[in-house]
Amino acid sequence: MSVANAKHTVLHPVVPYTGPVPGGLHPGEIIIIQGSVPPDADSSLLQGSWTREETLHQLPYKHGAPFETIILAQGDAFKVAVNGAHLLEYKHKIPLNRVDTLSVSGGVSVHAIAYIPNSAIYSESGDLALPYKGSILKGLIPGQHITIKGQSTCADGTENVALHLNPRIKSGVFIRNSYLGGSWGQEERELPFFPFSSGGYFEILLLCQPHQFKLAVNGCHLFEFRHRVQDLSSIDQLEIMGDLELADVKLW
């Protein structure tokens, strides 16, 4: 995720690191921690730093690999994603407005810690009308996320479409495609499971990476879609339509 809109950035802190959270935390704000795990990191220290008893079944941090941890502050909980995949939700033990310190420890090297204010995030919520159309200022850049929340109600454009998502609840099929130069491309349908149900709540997380989109539904990774439009900055519109009640759309 880009740290260009950060209100405060700490570069190359010495670990263990403890520092203040500038201005405290508020709902909608984000903390980004970018770093890497040294190849010779002590596994037991990693386990002790990052796991919780019977909570995480698989560590997302790998020896010798970079990582990006994103912590989203919400009114009742923190949501944590690592390398674009939802990891956990942690209910607040103290009021959010009392959170004033961040601590990082363990066998990791931290390159940057960034605090992203809520004002740097595009967000709309409430009873959003369909079809929905929103502008993505300056287009997409690698590292940005789009979150779509809503509820399904029941089970031909002319412009270029970089990524077309078409879940079909009755048949249990989730079609991905693109519409470029006046014609549809090759459909992609393979799924590990179908995540939607008639009348069911859903939360879609779409991560833009340099060479592909990654999509998760309700916290579970679903698929990747390789970019067919190479100029990501030209992707400047988001449209949502169909049989659903749209509750929230966020770009961050």
Automatic annotation (TrEMBL):
Residues 17-252 form the Galectin domain. The keyword Lyase does not apply. Coiled coil: none annotated. CDD domains: GLECT. This is Galectin. Keywords: Lectin. It holds the Pfam family Gal-bind_lectin. One of its GO terms (molecular function) is carbohydrate binding.
